[in-house]
Amino acid sequence: MLTQYAFVLIMVGVALSVPILAILANYFLSPHKPDPVKTDVYESGMKTVGDAWVQFRAQYYLIGLVFVLFDVEALFLFPIAVAYDKLAFFATMETILFILMLLAGLIYAWRKDALEWQ
């Protein structure tokens, strides 16, 4: 009985020890007092003039979330499309339900004007 759970206990130990070791390695290996060269600008090589903080509209994030939602939806639909002729009736009905739920989400986002680019 105990040998059946040995693999699970080993995986739990690994899952807990890897993040702890990563945090400890980050603490001991990272510089605690960076010099001025490390804190200098590095992207364009030019010092910024004025405030570099720019606020974006929340609508850009909504458009990004809708894009990710439908991108993941396409990921789920590719295997279904490949094996469509081998699917059972129940799997076909679940696929139709999945597409209808996504369509309802698209209609909701459309009505809330989350897809308008202004």
How do you describe this structure in short?
With 118 residues, the protein is an all-alpha fold. It has helices spanning 2-29, 58-82, 89-111. The protein is built from 3 helices and no strands.
The overall pLDDT average reads 83
Give the overall shape, derived from the CA principal axes. Answer: flat
Q: Given the structure, what is the number of helices?
A: 3
| String of helices and strands | HHH
Under the CATH scheme, the architecture is Up-down Bundle
Please name the CATH topology: Methane Monooxygenase Hydroxylase, Chain G, domain 1
Keywords for this entry:
single chain; 118 residues; mainly alpha; Methane Monooxygenase Hydroxylase, Chain G, domain 1; 3 helices; flat
Fold and architecture overview:
It contains 3 helices and no strands. With 118 residues, it is mostly helical. It has one domain: Methane Monooxygenase Hydroxylase, Chain G, domain 1 (Up-down Bundle). Helix 2 packs antiparallel against helix 3. The longest helix has 28 residues.
Write the layout of secondary structure elements.
Blueprint: H1 2-29, H2 58-82, H3 89-111
Helix pairs in contact: 2-3
